[in-house]
Automatic annotation (TrEMBL):
Residues 88-122 form a coiled coil. SUPFAM superfamilies: Putative DNA-binding domain. This is MerR family transcriptional regulator. InterPro entries: DNA-bd_dom_put_sf, MerR-type_HTH_dom, MerR_fam. Residues 1-68 form the HTH merR-type domain. It comes from the Bacteria. SMART domains: HTH_MERR. Keywords: Coiled coil, DNA-binding, Transcription, Transcription regulation. PROSITE patterns: HTH_MERR_1, HTH_MERR_2.
Amino acid sequence: MKIGELSARTGVSIRSIRYYEQQGLLTPVRQENGYREYSPFAEEQVRTIQLYLNLGLSTEQIAGFLHCVLQNKESFCKEVFPVYRQKLAEIEEQIKLLQSIKSNLEERMQSIVEEQQSHAKEEG
């Protein structure tokens, strides 16, 4: 199948499919005229790549285990669990940072409200 058909079947842009190819996640056959020809299996590959991207993984992380998960159940791919563990740790750090920022904003807002109230009492 051609890249346009793969894009239509998966709902993934041609640009993204080309990017997956550049990252080594997809390997089409090149015809003599230079056109990419994708196997019927490419549709499943693209959907699997999308699944992992939606979990917040990078294409580099996905490349580390994609071949395995396309051939086996995810639970049989020893490369997957450490990537999940690392991603979860990153998310927990991001949550801590966001909670800290939220707290700082709430404190600043409270300080502004208190200052406005204090100023209103002085004028009143």
